[in-house]
Design brief:
Elements lengths: L2 E6 L5 H12 L2 E4 H9 L3 H8 L1 H15 L5 E4 L8 H10 E7 L2 H8 L13 H16 L4 E4 L5 H11 L4
Parallel strand pairs: 1-3, 1-4, 2-3, 4-5
The structure holds shikimate-3-phosphate (S3P).
Shikimate-3-phosphate (S3P) binds next to loops.
Length: about 170
């Protein structure tokens, strides 16, 4: 099986859906942010704090390349992976790029309680969500498949992803 890359904004369910799909089809699941944290022995928040966002983007790009070498994987990516066109090119050439979406209100509700996302750990997270979504729309829209997760369960999202994959 070609890799399945789950992309999309923070709080759209990439990690939960990825894990669920991997169990259903017995593929390997990789959460790219967790992988980066393990390799660097630091949380994403600490990487942002100590080295800044551009440094994190460099790590994200390099680890994506490393991970993409293997097949049969479901890879949940960080929400900002799409801002580098090389990453999009790699994902699309080596698998299926699936974008999960959700409405700004749903994203706000799902991300409200956690404080591990540096880009939303700001005085006005609602405005940060609005601005980032507007900036990134042109990147997310390049996905092969897009699924709105706002009103459906993780199980249902996983089923829809699996039903939409190209048959090869
Ligand atoms: C980011 C999303 C995060 C993480 C980092 C930056 C982004 O991942 O990679 O905080 O730029 O959207 P999740 O989408 O898994 O929260």
């Amino acid at each position: 099986m070609n890799n399945i890359y789950l992309v999309g904004f923070m709080g759209t369910g990439k990690s939960s859906v990825g894990l669920r799909i991997s169990r259903e089809i017995k593929g390997d699941f990789i959460d790219l942010d967790k992988f980066i944290e393990e390799q660097e022995n630091k949380t994403i928040s600490d990487i942002f704090k100590e080295k800044g966002e551009p440094y994190f983007r460099g790590l994200e790009k390099n680890f994506l390349k490393d991970v993409a070498v293997k097949k049969n994987q479901i890879i949940a990516c960080g929400g900002g992976i799409v801002i580098d066109p090389d990453n999009i090119k790699l994902m699309k050439s080596n698998g299926t790029m699936v974008c999960l979406t959700a409405s700004p209100d749903v994203i706000m509700e799902r991300t409200r309680k956690s404080n591990h996302r540096p880009l939303l750990n700001v005085p006005d997270p609602q405005e940060a969500i609005r601005a980032l979504l507007a900036d990134r729309q042109k990147f997310y829209s390049q996905a092969d498949i897009t699924i709105d997760t706002s009103e459906i369960s993780i199980k249902e999202v996983a089923t829809r992803v699996l039903n939409s994959l190209p048959k090869d």
